[in-house]
Amino acid sequence: MSILVKHYEDRYTEGALCVWNEVVEEGIAFPQEDFLDAVTGKEFFEAQTYTGLAVDGDTDAVLGLYILHPNNVGRCGHIANASFAVCAGLRGEHIGEKLVIDCLQKAKETGFSIMQFNAVVDSNVHARHLYERLGFQRLGMIPGGFRMKDGHFEDIYLYYYKL
Questions:
Q1: Which residues pair with 7 in a beta bridge?
Q2: For residues 136 and 16, what is the distance between their CA atoms, to the nearest angstrom?
């Protein structure tokens, strides 16, 4: 399987929704609790500074995605934030790594100078290891900062990367 990272286009909305909503449904990584539909999803993906898609080069199927946007406004508007999602059945295939690397490049190209992740869940070990391997610095931990789908709370970590 050849994996291409592309900019979001309308024709990928259905595939992007499947990936996004799967992670929301799992309730273990994204803070969102509501699913996106064809209308709200298209609006959401287009509203980001950049939405990148990992696409199978042979089938054109969406395998994963990321959203890139400001972490804050005004005097902190140079700090980017991003979220990443990979189809559950394809995790471990280095799709997330391709997405993160592309996201860092796009963040720099669009004028950001820092990437900050606000809420990387403690049990999301593979993501934490990936970020650290790529040079992100862990800044700290918020005890009980994320409510898991089953109702228990897990610690979250903040990460920083100088672009």
A1: 52
A2: 26
